[in-house]
Amino acid sequence: MLNSRQTVNNSHEYRRRLLVDGCHKFAHIVNKSRPARFEMYFDDEMRYIYCLVSKAACTSLKRTLIMLSGKITKYRRPEQVPEGIVHNFDKSDVYVDRVEKLPEAKRNFVFETYFTFLFVREPMERLLSAYRDKLLEHRYYRIDREIVLRYRPQDYKPSKTRYNTTFAEFVKYVLDQRAAGRVLDRHWIPQSELCRVCKYRYDFIGHQETLHSDANFIVEKLKSRIEDDQQRRRVANVTFPADSGHKKSSGLLQQMYATVPAADVQALYQLYAMDYALFGFEHPNVGGFS
Questions:
Q1: Using an 8 Å Cβ cutoff, are 124 and 284 in contact?
Q2: pLDDT value at 36 more than 80
Q3: pLDDT tops 80 at residue 191
Q4: C-alpha to C-alpha distance for 242 and 113, rounded to whole angstroms
Q5: Residue 84: is it exposed, middle or buried by C-beta count within 10 angstroms (0-12/13-18/19+)?
Q6: How far separated are the first and last CA of the chain, in Å rounded?
Q7: 269's torsion region: left (phi>0), alpha (psi -120 to 50) or beta?
Q8: Which of 21, 206, 220, 247 has its CA 20 to 30 A from that of 213?
Q9: Binning pLDDT at 50, 70 and 90, where does residue 288 land?
Q10: Are 148 and 157 in contact (CB under 8 A)?
């Protein structure tokens, strides 16, 4: 019987090989996509590069990397690190370094020699998560206002500060933005268009669907690379947050996509076709398609 580490290793090798083979097959498609801005972090002590993919456990992963740096002592567990530190470059730069700040020669060196990883997520789940987070829970860049002005202007009132927008409207908005040739927001852009996945070598591709086993593997991997005795002792008890990630709800997925026109669901599959091909996700049976 395989232990958890062997299982992760086997999955990791399969995913890595799938990405390499997929890039050989689809590089002409992936490499012609318009460049999107993305975040990459590195550490010279643990010798890693992490490319952040929004809506794929990125907050918990960055919190954990901040704790593993050994530079923060105010908090004992990653989940205690405030989002204000995690998402504010001026504050997080104290603990984790951004690759974009590196001179080109050093950047090439770290990509050739450091351990590289990223985490991705099933595209339809990720899009639904983005809608729930950015439109239902928060008022992200007033996209709700933009959607109402575009699709039901009769409901727009200048004095109104917040609108209820449906998931079907959000999907149409994403598809229309794509059709207009705009670079999509980082929370719902195809993951294959982030991180230069067909340009750089990635040693480990974690999945949101196997988040805890994958993240625990990364934490232990990075700890093992720490040579400084004091830092190793400081971070010995750091673990990936146990309550990170949302449980997959196939019922909710079905329910929400049932409100989306079938043609738009099919268009989403086309939009995220490279995510499915490169990262090995299976199409969920939503909107009458599988």
A1: yes
A2: no
A3: yes
A4: 31
A5: exposed
A6: 32
A7: alpha
A8: 21
A9: low
A10: no
| The two structure tokens encoding residue 66 | 């901040």
| Token pair 């575009």: residue | 150
What residue type is assigned to position 93 of the chain? D
| Distance separating alpha carbons of residues 139 and 56, to the nearest angstrom | 20
Residues 47 and 257: their CA atoms lie apart, in Å, by 41
Angle at the Cα of 224 from the Cα atoms of 221 and 228, rounded to 5 degrees: 140
**How many beta carbons lie within 10 A of that of residue 281, not counting itself?**
20
* Whole-angstrom distance, CA of residue 147 vs CA of residue 136: 13
HEC states along the chain?
Answer: CCCHHHHHHHHHHHHHHHHHHHHHHHHHHHCCCCCCCCEEEEECCCCEEEEECCCCCHHHHHHHHHHHCCCCCCCCCHHHCCHHHHCCHHHHCCCCEEHHHCCHHHHHHHHHHCEEEEEECCHHHHHHHHHHHHHHHCCHHHHHHHHHHHHCHHHCCCCCCCCCCCHHHHHHHHHHHHHCCCCCCCCCCCHHHCCCCCCCCCCEEEEHHHHHHHHHHHHHHHHHCCCCHHHHHHCCCCCCCCCCCCCCCHHHHHHHHCCCCHHHHHHHHHHCHHHHHHHCCCCCCECCEC
HSE toward the beta carbon, residue 24, CA cutoff 13 A: 5
Q: What tokens were used for 238?
A: 């750091």
Nearest-angstrom CA–CA distance, 287 and 131: 17
